[in-house]
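[recover] target loaded
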């Protein structure tokens, strides 16, 4: 999202990301306020920490040779396929098992698939078209996230009987799929910011899958649907926040 937001800015010369420290170094012409003003609407907490004249060392560090884009594209295609298949599997199982947690997790799979698909689609295309594609993905995520949250509310009022066995089985399959994604992306996690972000997405998905499995176990143990509703709500809110950030992108 940051790359899409700043790619259209003529004054930006290079970007250097440190995701662990949540820091971004921008080599640019013009005022730093213009950069901050572009990043603030993304809702990522952008704050200007320092501005100084760029030296040759900083410029060289920020413009290192790009990683092997062909290999990255190949990995992204595999990740896209895995997430798209699991979206269909989890959505179908979630509806059959009356589990909002599974439905919400399938939505998270869809969100990841949309991000990977967007990364592949945007290569070599205009900034305006990239942002337009991102907005389409964001709108779809927003609609589905709101649908899940409304479904959670409906089931909270009228009740539901989620099938804990199906929940845990399908979530276990999703856990295996996301672990495979994590292993695939591991070799690229020190590459560009988009690959580092993909690593973080996959790691978060593994945590969410464990949460759904725990919710299924709690449903079986307590006989209550509340653990399913709680996990479904949390995942729905996570995807809703991601959709909001994507829609904040400007051409």
């Amino acid at each position: 999202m940051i790359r899409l937001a700043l790619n259209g800015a003529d004054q930006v010369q290079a970007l250097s990301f440190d995701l662990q420290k949540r820091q971004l170094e921008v080599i640019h012409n013009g005022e730093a306020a213009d950069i901050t003003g572009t990043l603030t609407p993304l809702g990522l907490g952008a704050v200007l920490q320092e501005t100084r004249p760029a030296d040759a060392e900083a410029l060289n560090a920020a413009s290192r040779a790009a990683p092997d884009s062909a290999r990255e594209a190949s990995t992204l295609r595999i990740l896209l396929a895995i997430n798209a298949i699991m979206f269909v599997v989890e959505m179908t199982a979630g509806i059959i098992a009356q589990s909002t947690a599974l439905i919400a997790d399938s939505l998270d799979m869809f969100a990841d698939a949309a991000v990977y698909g967007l990364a592949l689609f945007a290569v070599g295309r205009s900034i305006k078209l990239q942002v337009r594609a991102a907005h389409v993905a964001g709108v779809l995520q927003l609609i589905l996230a709101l649908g899940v949250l409304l479904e959670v509310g409906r089931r909270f009022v009228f009740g539901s009987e989620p099938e804990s066995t199906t929940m845990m089985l399908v979530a276990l399959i999703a856990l295996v799929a996301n672990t495979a994604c994590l292993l695939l992306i591991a070799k690229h996690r020190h590459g560009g910011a988009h690959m580092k972000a993909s690593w973080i997405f996959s790691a978060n998905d593994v945590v969410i899958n464990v949460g759904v499995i725990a919710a299924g176990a709690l449903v079986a143990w307590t006989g209550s649907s509340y653990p399913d509703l709680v996990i479904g709500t949390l995942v729905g809110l996570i995807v809703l926040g991601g959709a909001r950030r994507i829609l904040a992108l400007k051409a």
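[recover] notes: The two ends are 11 Å apart (CA to CA).
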